[in-house]
Amino acid sequence: MVVLAIHGGAGGDGPWGGPTDLDPARIECMQSILANVGKALEDGKITALEAVTEAVSLLEDEPLFNAGRGAVIGADGKITMDASIMNGKDCSAGACAGVSILRHPIRLANHLLKGNWPLMLFGEGADEAGRKAGLEVVSQEWLATPLRWAQWKKWRDSNLRPGATDEDDNVLNAALDHDIEIGPISEFSHENLLEEIDGPGTVGAVALDKEGNLAAATSTGGMTGKPLGRVGDTPLIGAGTWADSRVAVSNTGVGEAYIRTCAAKRVADLVELANVDLETACNMMLDEVEPFGGRGGIIAISSKGEVCMPFQVTLMYRGTYFKGDVFTAIGPN
Ligand code: ASP
């Protein structure tokens, strides 16, 4: 049995208003990834580690997700990206943070995993290691999209705290009148922009291959207006990403809360030590991050093929490949 699950981030408060005009493109991207990478996994052509690397690379290429091209913009007007990957077979891992010139940060994380040491690189060192490894180098102009500049300008003009447009609907609602002042962005209607301002979009994948091995990968641009040097949970093994012989986890949400609770490893520990089922473990973890301001979701699979994708916000872009079937969803089922 093989399983592939992916996510494109979680966010929002209150009831889901249904798909936006931009959602069909996100869903099409997820369906194509699940169908193609899932099939290759099913045919035994790729391992779980290769599946999560490929799936996250393709999600990084979709500008509507907050990773790779289309990553959100920091306080200084620059994009910096974080990613991590873990192979459940031997608990090898790789991670990078503050990457600014690579098209696929997850491929640098995978490169570091294979190199064994160092496990994690930051900033210029990470960019340089990616360049040396022959990974595709791109410009900041190529990475930044009109939607992300609109979010960034809204963040700057409204004097919101960093990440506010991503996570805090009360602050956002207080500033909604300013949205129209963002000015015309040809591809996005005003209505879309209101929806998308709270746009989540961190991406992740978990997979179980034919050999029974698990792997997990996560990639993000972080939060709109984040201060220079801010690192969230995504590149931190045990917080944003975890895979061992029992479970594989990729998280999305307010990173600081996931770091403080070692959220990804927490799920694995609950399954192993507290002997609870995967779904219970995921929900317990979400309950634990909540008091720390954690808002988000998780995708997790077990070596038995169980899949759980709970979230405690309005929506989470998510999907699975299981026994030849592709499933995708945005709001509550
Ligand atoms: N966890 C990411 C971070 O804090 C953001 C997200 O998942 O949306 O950088």
Description:
Strands 4-3-2-6-5-1-11-12 form an 8-stranded mixed beta sheet. It has 12 helices and 12 strands. About 8% of the residues have low confidence. The longest helix has 20 residues. The protein has one domain: (Glycosyl)asparaginase (Glutamine Phosphoribosylpyrophosphate, subunit 1, domain 1, 4-Layer Sandwich), CATH 3.60.20.30. The relative contact order is 0.20.
Shape: globular
CATH class membership: Alpha Beta
Bound molecules: aspartic acid
Reported for the largest beta sheet, the result is:
8 strands, mixed
Q: Identify low-pLDDT runs.
A: 167-191
Order of helices and strands: EHHEEHEHHHHHHEEEEHHHEEEE
Instruction: Tell me the number of helical segments per DSSP (H or I, 4 or more residues long).
Output: 12
Structural class: alpha+beta
**CATH homologous superfamily label:** (Glycosyl)asparaginase
What number is the mean pLDDT? Answer: 90
CATH architecture: 4-Layer Sandwich
Instruction: Count up the domains.
Output: 1
Q: How many β-strand runs?
A: 12
List the helices and strands and how they pair.
Layout: E1 3-11, H1 23-42, H2 48-61, E2 81-87, E3 92-99, H3 105-115, E4 120-122, H4 123-132, H5 140-143, H6 146-157, H7 164-167, H8 169-174, H9 190-197, E5 203-208, E6 214-220, E7 241-243, E8 247-253, H10 255-260, H11 263-273, H12 278-289, E9 296-302, E10 307-308, E11 315-322, E12 325-329
Parallel strand pairs: 3-4
Antiparallel strand pairs: 1-5, 1-11, 2-3, 2-6, 5-6, 7-8, 8-9, 9-10, 11-12
Bound molecules: aspartic acid (ASP).
Residues 9, 200, 202, 220, 222-223, 232-234, 252-255, 296 line the site of aspartic acid.
